[in-house]
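User: For documentation purposes, I need each entry recorded in a consistent format: the amino acid sequence on its own, followed directly by the corresponding structure tokens. There are two entries in this batch. Please keep commentary to a minimum and don't merge the entries.

Assistant: Recorded as requested. Entry 1:
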Amino acid sequence: MNKVGIRELKAKLSSYIDKARNGEEIVVTEHGVEVAVIHPVSPERRAIISLVKKGEAQWSGGKPRGVEGIKIRGKGISETILEERQ
């Protein structure tokens, strides 16, 4: 894990992006205080981006919302789990 001040990060941004691309985490500091972390893109995010590019999924970048139009017969999952725990 590398630490870098904002001034140096601005001056050498491309080299720090290359480090992140190669799997390193970079902690950004301001006056010695950690303020941000630059990290590589996760495999999960890469998979989502790939599916979106292929047209096999849609994603606006936000958190997933519940699926609409699905009806559950019987008890819900959370209720079943709570019963099992007793």
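Entry 2:
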Amino acid sequence: MAVRGKGSKAYAVREYLEANPQAGNAEIQNALAAKGIKVTTKYISNVKHLLKTKRQVVKKVVKERGVGIPEVKAALALLKVSGSVEAARAALDAAQEIKALI
């Protein structure tokens, strides 16, 4: 079973890419192999593709909705913390009430 989060292979690839954005697949594979993480170049390519796809989706939403990336990131963080859209809306309603009272 795959490990999710900071112990995952995908996380290791993303972390390496963040530190070395111009790194090629073979370079990433060799660097991770030195750390004891076995990944194939195809796996690295898939992780890179998913990162690119996510960036494209964010850019599309930002363009269509007219909000900035910080607002999108804050909204995603709120959804992650609250667990559901309904809970996030309830939290926003409560915040709106508090803002009105202040």
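Summary note for entry 2:
The chain has a mean pLDDT of 87.
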